[in-house]
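Example record

One chain of 503 residues, shown exactly as stored in the release files.
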Amino acid sequence: MDPRALTFEAPAKGTGPETAIGLYVHIPFCETKCPYCDFNTYAGIEPLIPEYVLALRKELRIWGSLLGRPTVGTVFLGGGTPSYLPAEALESVVGTMRDAFELLPDAEVTMEANPDDCSPAKLADARGAGLNRISIGVQSLDDRLLKSLGRRHDAAQAVSAARTARSAGFKNVNLDLMFGLPDQSLAHWEDSLAGVMELAPDHVSLYALTLEPNTPLAAWVKAGKVADPDPDLAADMYEHAEDVMASAGFRHYEISNWARPGFESRHNLVYWTNGPYLGVGPGAHSHLRATRFANLKSPREYIRRMREIALTPILSRRERGDFLPAQTWGIGSHDPVERNEEGDFLLSPTSEIAPSRAPSPGGRGGRGGGDVADPALRQAQGASPARTFLSPTWESNEERGVTPPATAFMAQAGIVESAERVSPAQEMSETMMMGLRLDTGISARAFQARFGRTLDEAFGDIIAGLVDLELLARDPSGIRLTRRGRLLGNEVFSRFVGVPGAA
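Predicted structure tokens for this chain:
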């Protein structure tokens, strides 16, 4: 799809969570690239950092202006390794973000971090810049396994990083672990998990290793240089983790994520419950209403193209009212992250969810650290009518209300490089795939309110078959994965792909 022909609605001006969007900020730099990682990250391009920061700040200002300075409820600085940035660069990015967008007073602002970047001074600077949540890529507390993963820290540094984060004033700390690694025994896993729990984190993300194509690790396994991970052993590790985390009082609120009550990742819940989301930086994905779009991937080319954009005319155009924000995102008048009386998360009746690429129970192709979902999953959709962006500068009378000038501008500038419309049939299937990742599953009421069809009308035979296989549990309120279903999540999700009944 030509990204210059995108259609979506602008955010409403407002100060409440019902009008807030999520913001993802991509930092593509790594000191070294891990052999299992297939993310859009790069090692050895540190000389680009100063120009990259300027380009990123410029993109933030452009989107903030063109979207009418929308309200932001959550921010996630991911990568790559955001903690690798110099403190002054990180502070300038966060400062520009606050100038360009209206952050909620209680906005969750997360930074991914590698343990060896977590010096007291750097984390104090991060807190001073306004970051209030940190996600540390521990991955393992076994030095031999860390070395085999190409990690640049050791177990002692990981432990120190978690403690330093507390000392720096972070009251919301996530620790990331990987399991199902080559040559990792159950005893290794038990020790790492026990060690992490001793650090008293607020949130824990546990990911099974995924052998991503075209990565060094996948090539080593294929060549027989590294042992192929054992999926049965990985399942045992996952079940052990479920028991340990439950005993510690953590809620298993998503397939790969556990949290102390009240510390669930609000940014990730934007994805899983279909809140509006914007991504900035090379390779960053956005999903606004029923359209996904993505920036070009090359950091060098991103810098070059951003350099060519004249910022002053854009801001002037905004000031004279050429870009008119719509009245609503169309997500309803309530917070898209609903809870029932028991505190369970509910899918918004007006939400829309993208498909999951992640393998069950939550595979990890790799990143420096953190619990963020695949950027390609992030999107937003609303059912309520609203005005689109209108601009006499960009649209003829016939096109008025069809092409949003904000995204059209970024596409013509070569920043937004690809786009995809999501069909109604996709929306229905993707709602099932993403919503079932949450412990609350799919609400029968919300599904029918949104699609005008019951779960049985859309997927009755599939649901019945999965219940018979003990992969889904069902009650009058809806459906959800069983404990066995969480282990075999991909098997469940695949049943809803391309289902004729969803059309």
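Notes: The two ends are 21 Å apart (CA to CA).
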